[in-house]
Recover the amino acids of this structure.
């Protein structure tokens, strides 16, 4: 009986040692990848094919970490960003899920099909996107104010003004590689005048911020 207990204890210790060794190897592999290819970032991948025109099934998404240089621009960084969205074009299993792959429900012909009022989807780099998802909220489909803060000129300080009020937020994804920390890529439903003003502002403004409409 004592011999059997000793053998059982030995098996348990061996199993624990094997698990600890595997974890150490995995950690070491992750560190070696980071050293060899640069910083890692989370990306959303389709675990199975996502059919066009269907609502996004969260169970069909996986979150992985890959080197930043390998992630295509616009790749989602969290499955939460796809909640409530519809697949615009079929996404094969194993593919990165991009903001451009999604659309608001019912916007059959594309993101701009159901906007009306002369609005078209326009992507701009923005700050403050984290404030839109506080409390687990799903920002896509809501309306936002776009605020421009200019650089100081001469002895005077910069100014802050609302460049576009209550515009539809159609998609939200990570900023381009090399962009300033906290910058995201927001696709907004803008009129031609709003689009031209914001595109111009990106060339001279200190930052362009999106704020939730209360």
């Amino acid at each position: 009986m004592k011999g059997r207990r000793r053998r059982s204890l030995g098996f348990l210790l061996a199993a624990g040692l094997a698990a600890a060794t595997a974890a150490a190897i995995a950690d070491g592999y992750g560190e070696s990848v980071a050293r060899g290819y640069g910083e890692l970032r989370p990306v959303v991948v389709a675990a199975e094919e996502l059919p066009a025109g269907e609502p996004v099934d969260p169970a069909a998404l996986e979150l992985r970490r890959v080197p930043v240089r390998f992630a295509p621009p616009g790749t989602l960084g969290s499955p939460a960003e796809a909640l409530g969205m519809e697949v615009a074009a079929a996404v094969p299993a194993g593919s990165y899920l991009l903001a451009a792959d999604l659309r608001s429900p019912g916007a059959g012909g594309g993101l701009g099909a159901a906007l009306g009022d002369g609005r078209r989807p326009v992507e701009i780099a923005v700050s403050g996107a984290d404030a839109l998802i506080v409390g687990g909220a799903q920002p896509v489909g809501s309306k936002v104010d776009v605020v421009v803060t200019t650089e100081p000129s001469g002895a005077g300080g910069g100014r802050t003004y609302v460049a576009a009020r209550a515009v539809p937020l159609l998609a939200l994804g990570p900023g381009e590689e090399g962009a300033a920390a906290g910058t995201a890529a927001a696709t907004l439903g803008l009129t031609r005048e709003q689009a031209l003003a914001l595109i111009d502002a990106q060339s001279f403004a200190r930052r362009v911020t999106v704020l939730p409409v209360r």
Q: What stands out?
A: The radius of gyration is 23 Å. Helices lie at 2-37, 192-204.
